[in-house]
Specification:
Largest sheet: 4 strands, parallel
Mean pLDDT: 89
Order of helices and strands: HEEEHEHEEEHEH
Oligomer: single chain
Distance between the termini: 40 Å
Structural class: alpha/beta
CATH architecture: 3-Layer(aba) Sandwich
Strand order of the largest sheet: 5-4-1-8
Number of strands: 8
CATH superfamily: Ribokinase
Length: 172
């Protein structure tokens, strides 16, 4: 059984995989909680020790594939902003080929504040301003998909309902 698993993982490294979907930037703020915030009764006060960024949404799927040695392309939409630059850098560091079909939406960021071993709060940014991708961008995605599909052994659609995979795309 272990030998079969090793063989599967070795074979996996030879596969070309496309992950298409909603790309999110996950931010983690790590700290310690030793007292209550004097400005707000009951609210914890977190002393920040460090912060880090990870690929979220479809990016997390692509990162998992890359960490197992798979060759992965990631397609999605994210903003032309500082958070989008962080996504590009994270993909570069993980050897993920990234294609951004930017459509004027901001990058979606989910920030988790961790105090000790417990998540205190999560902040979501970018979602309240999302608009459906325009027809021109949708057509570009479909055209690229039809042109490139033969280059992949597997395609994974990772939909977090954040606009990249409209219903029309899923049924065409």
């Amino acid at each position: 059984m272990v030998k079969n698993l090793v063989t599967l993982i070795d074979d996996f490294k030879n596969q070309k995989i496309l992950v298409a979907g909603d790309i999110i930037l996950d931010e983690f703020i790590w700290g310690v909680c030793k007292r209550i915030n004097p400005e707000e009764e009951g609210a914890p006060l977190v002393n920040v020790r460090r912060r880090n960024y990870m690929l979220g949404g479809a990016g997390n799927v692509a990162n998992n594939i890359a960490s197992l040695g798979g060759k992965c392309d990631l397609w999605g939409c994210f903003g032309d902003d500082d958070d989008g630059k962080k996504i590009k850098k994270l993909c570069e560091n993980s050897s993920i080929d990234l294609k951004n079909f930017y459509d004027k939406n901001p990058t979606i960021v989910k920030t988790r504040v961790i105090g000790g071993r417990k998540q205190i709060v999560r902040f979501d940014e970018g979602e309240e301003n999302l608009t459906k991708i325009n027809k021109e961008t949708e057509d570009r995605i479909l055209e690229e998909f039809e042109k490139s599909i033969e280059n992949y052994d597997f395609v994974i659609l990772s939909d977090y309902n954040k606009t990249f995979l409209p219903l029309d795309f899923l049924v065409k």
